[in-house]
Amino acid sequence: MDKILLEKLSNAFGPPGEETEPAKILIAELEGYADEVRTDKMGNVFFTHKGDEEAPLIMLAAHTDEVGVLITDIDDNGFLRFHPWGIVANVLPGQRIVLRGKKGNLYGILGTKPPHVLSAAERKAAIPSDQLFLDIGASTREMAEAKGAYIGMKGVFDVQFKDLGDGFLWGKAFDDRVGCYVMCEVFKWVKDKPYNVVAVGTVQEEVGLRGSKTAAWQVDPDYGLALENTFAMDMPGVAPHKQSAGLHKGPVVTIADRSVITHPKVLGCIQEAAAAEGIPYQYKKIPSGGTDAGSIHLTKAGIPSGVIANPGRYIHGPCGITTEEDIKNTVALVKAFIKRISS
Ligand SMILES: [Zn+2]
Q1: Considering the domain 69-157, what is its CATH architecture?
Q2: Is 205 a catalytic residue?
Q3: What is the pLDDT of residues 11-62, one digit of tens each?
Q4: Options 7, 29, 205, 206, the catalytic residue
Q5: b or e along 289-298 (b: 16 or more beta carbons within 10 Å of the residue's beta carbon)?
Q6: Which of 29, 89, 143, 231 has its CA 20 to 30 A from that of 190?
Q7: Residues 6+ apart with CB under 8 A from 261
Q8: Hey, what CATH topology would domain 3-66+172-342 get?
Q9: Ligand 1: distance of its center to the CA of 250 in Å?
Q10: Ligand 1 center from residue 243 Cα (angstroms)
């Protein structure tokens, strides 16, 4: 696989509402393969491949945004307060955050009191995010603003992609830059094929599946497929029946989640395609979370839709872990699905 591309996608800065950087990577990667490239008013980016006229139109969606923070206040002592987007407080204390200020990147730490001064009760309790603050190295509001900090500034975890060896990869924003990566591989493959595919890098998924809503309305496809990176739970402390998915078990197929019940034709076609080509897959065992399929399938008179996701541990945290083997099998299953639903 092209680990350099995944590294670029993972490291790109793209909190909700500020997805230009990952979108540009997709454009640079795919414009040579597309019959048409277009960006809409929301920031969604569309890559069209025209196949046979009779072939159904398939919309692939991978979201370009990632979990992050929105700066809501700068206090007199230069500390920043924030609203978390898609992040829960228990992973936040002590994390490093990169922010896109008016003068370029700023770096902040989610400050915590040292253990020496915590009471016994405080040591045990999770700190709610409204009690956390970002320290960017400023002693007054004026100093913070002079560095380029502003209210409305956004930030993401400051984590760089790493190849851990033995097929294991780590990085931030694997939800959903792994989905973007899968979409790139599939769209390149479709170039000489008779299938009709529009691949969309969608915006603002993490704040409520928003970009895919307007994107699907424009594409008006026959079928929708969200390409995701969903939570693998094969880790200590999680009972086997609660492990929604695991690494090394192939792509995760959604039967239902909070946002969609996969259309029987789409689900059947994914199952048949996997069986025909011998691609391993697993079902998402816990029907929580939502994806772009949630908004795509409710577009216009309804669009049969589903989800194929790569399994990844620690999604919505600072750093995820996934495997090359799972990504390869996810790419293979999406290709097999397109073939089968188009025939
Ligand atoms: Zn996602």
Answers
A1: Beta Barrel (2.40)
A2: yes
A3: 999 999 999 999 999 999 999 999 999 999 999 999 999 999 999 999 999 9
A4: 205
A5: bbbbbbbbbb
A6: 231
A7: 255
A8: Aminopeptidase (3.40.630)
A9: 17
A10: 18
